[in-house]
Amino acid sequence: MAAMVERNDAPKLHHVSPIVKGFAGSMGGVVEACCLQPIDVIKTRLQLDTAGKYRGIMDCGRTVVAEEGVRALWKGLTPFATHLTLKYALRMGSNSVYQTALRDANGKLTDARRMAAGFMAGITEALLIVTPFEVVKIRLQQQKGCAKTGLKYKGPVHCAATVVREEGVLGLWSGAGPTMSS
């Protein structure tokens, strides 16, 4: 009969603080924004093209570059990157906090509690970051034209302030229910 040998070669888990996880999430948001911004600019131009100027995605991208230069594909990067940076920082950081709070007395986290932490982090992110940023982004995108004269909203901060002034602070959370469920 073989002797049983007790081995302790299981990997040791290192605790990573919510701040580090939040920072990592925010860096991921910056990278994502830089990669996706040209696609978002093209999508928005196509959505607002009621005159039929563009014949599709590639034509829209080529036209924007030809008329405005390559940098035009990154118009609006700052608010988009800010949105994603805050969103992912909050998601990763709050998920870590929720996981810590849901651990049992032995420090174990069941799959169900891990899922609950992710669910709560998603709701937190949707309510605190995504919904107000989406309200502002959509209000800005639905405006026709590029010249600031004649536009209701002059930029993201002006748009948010106008929504709050005209609709109250809860106007920034219009559509929060569907946003949380997506």
UniProtKB/TrEMBL annotation:
Gene Ontology terms for molecular function: succinate:fumarate antiporter activity
Transmembrane segments: none
Organism for this UniProt entry: Raphidocelis subcapitata
InterPro entries recorded: MCP_dom_sf, MCP_transmembrane, TXTP-like
Solcar repeat boundaries on the chain: 16-101, 112-182
UniProt protein name: Mitochondrial succinate-fumarate transporter
Assigned GO CC terms: mitochondrial membrane
UniProt similarity note: Belongs to the mitochondrial carrier (TC 2.A.29) family.
Record-linked SUPFAM superfamilies: Mitochondrial carrier (SSF103506)
Record key words, sorted: Membrane, Mitochondrion, Repeat, Transmembrane, Transmembrane helix, Transport
Location in or out of the cell: Mitochondrion membrane
Superkingdom of origin: Eukaryota
Membrane-protein topology: Multi-pass membrane protein
